[in-house]
């Protein structure tokens, strides 16, 4: 059956339907990941977005539920050039088509994803509709679409406690703005007990539990929209060692008087080069974000990492507040592990005085 992608600028792409029946509206973005489609589809940071995979063949090793970053699919729709109908992998639970059907997510295949990506790169991210009837699209309504209340939509509703298999070396309070499970896995692997809190848990409640450190997770949407979370972080800073990833990085900058800006088409995929300004070393990172910290606006921190491609801020150090934040994902899975050492650095900051 034919299925169409109708862009806000009027362009229409014809493809084949797969996944669930129905239609979807979202912000059209592209990801350059070669692998990691299970993780992409289950990443809460894609809330409200239609994901286009630039790699032409998707799904050859199938879907593994164990590898999911959350308990559901978050993108509004999924667009690929070709999906594998007969995947092969000893760990495989299901295929991409069945996975999308299970979670009610529409998909489009047989699309010229390179042409779609070129439009986004040249014109910037834009809204789009995935539909079986392109003549039914209301362009006024489409142009007015905005991703709002994103963190509220993805954060967990209650506190959860995760314990490592062996002896616990420290306890981390994790603010869940749409946290990827691999952040929790990375901390557990290093002997940390993780207490995950809903995004808007008051600072005094978390501090009263006396954690050794605080982790601010990734998440979707416009960081500046999260005024309540920003105010909470302002109360947390300087009280405990703090580590922020992705949205947590952006919110920390806002909490200290900095600014964020929306990028033309964002950074999404597992091949983003980042330079550590202290060492001069360049590493490859996994990223998923449409906003960036304005490094020139920082008042209490200094830029520690930059994106080699466009020079945007990729990390901030706050020496006076015992805090560090990064825009990329050091816990990336699937993805490069070049910056996993940041977890050890965070743990040292929590344990050196114990």
Protein described:
By secondary structure, the chain is of the alpha/beta class. The protein has 2 domains: 2-147, Glucose Oxidase, domain 1 (3-Layer(bba) Sandwich); 151-351, Rossmann fold (3-Layer(aba) Sandwich). Helices cover 22% and strands 33% of the residues. It has 10 helices and 19 strands. Helix 8 packs across helix 9.
- Proportion of beta-strand residues: 25-35%
Radius of gyration: 20 Å
The domain tally reads 2
Task: Give the rounded overall mean pLDDT.
Answer: 97
| The CATH fourth-level homologous superfamily of the largest domain | Class I glutamine amidotransferase (GATase) domain
Which structural class should the secondary elements be placed in? alpha/beta
Biggest β-sheet, characterized? Answer: 10 strands, mixed
Count all strands and give the number. 19
Low-confidence stretches: none
| CATH fold type of the largest domain | Rossmann fold
Distance between the termini: 62 Å
Q: CATH first level of the largest domain: which class?
A: Alpha Beta
Tally of helical segments: 10
Estimated helix fraction: 10-25%
CATH architecture of the largest domain: 3-Layer(aba) Sandwich
